Amino acid sequence: MVEPPGLDAPLVTAALAGRHRGRAVARLAGLRLLLGVPTVLLVAVGVFLLAAASPFRPVYQYFGVGIFSASDADIAATERALGLDGTVGEQLLRWLGGLLGGDLGQSLSMRQPVAQVVAERLPWTLLLVTLALLVSLVLALAAGTLAAWWQGGWFDRAVTAVGHTLEGLPPFVLALGAIAVFAVAWPVLPVAGLTDAGAAPTPEQVGRHLVLPVLVLGVSQTPWLVLHVRASLLASLDDDHVAGARARGLPERVVVLRHALPTALLPFVTVLGNRLPELVTGAVLVETVFSWPGIAAAVVTAALAVDFPLLAALTLLSAVAVLAGSLVADLTVLLLDPRVDADV
């Protein structure tokens, strides 16, 4: 291949490698999109068919106790207005057509369009989940790195024991324990709602009410991450390039943080993406315990109220979030690790 005049060979090689990796990223994103669309469609159809097979009639939830005084004509008119008339196939096609057009239906329990419910609650869930993920990352990286660095010491044994213990502890148990400590025994933090009763949602109010839900959700997701960081870093410390760094007389701090840790963190990105479904599940439990007005708490409300339109929309949203998290994790590994085959 003829090099362009005035450019060094390393620069040309780096430019070509960057261009090739950019094509690989676009190819991977396109492939995941092609696979993701039918996956979401299958989830949508499955959720609708499960709802159709349920013995509950959604119109009963809409009327409540008023169903006993409603006439057959009123019930039929309401079913037509809500898109509940016709055969299952007709309802499915009507519902899928609405999804494609951005119409998610009407929430039967909240008496609002589902799109409005999602728009009002989603930002609060994103705030909670983002902060909890940051807490989990900081705890996992700090504790996992120190545990591997001081392998066999008291800190390593404590981190390993606590990590394995928390793996089997549901988030709602942590939430109840946090409430017992910080609201009952030592009442320093609020435990319910977005703000105090009657208070405006100021940053100070929201921040105080966020502390416990964020800490509980973040700590609940930490055990798997911290144990993976520890195991991955221990394996990286045995690599040849780390042994070479030690042979050159570099300080142990430099060897661990600049040579071993970057290599150990590459598979950690994939693990982090795979933990997204658990993060969604944990958010549902934490928002319910702390009465946080997010989208995850609406899942419980929709399930208890047999609110099929809202429950279906939230299920689809969760499926999209899981697929997006997996894609972001794989793209990050592809961009950061030159050893990954770009053609995969």
What would you call the quaternary organization?
A: single chain
Give the SSE string: HHHHEEHHHHHHHHH
Helical element count? 13
Straight-line N-to-C gap: 25 Å
Poorly predicted runs: none
**Overall strand count:** 2
How would you sum up the global shape? globular
Rg calc: 26 Å
Q: Largest sheet, described in full?
A: 2 strands, antiparallel
- Amount of helix: over 70%
Structural class, from helix and strand content?
mainly alpha
> Kindly state the mean pLDDT as a whole number?
80
Strand line-up across the major sheet: 1-2
Strand content: under 5%
Describe this structure in words.
With 344 residues, this protein is mainly α. The protein has helices spanning 9-53, 58-63, 72-81, 88-100, 114-149, 154-167, 171-185, 203-236, 240-247, 252-274, 276-289, 295-304, 308-336; strands spanning 106-107, 112-113. Strands 1-2 form a two-stranded antiparallel sheet.
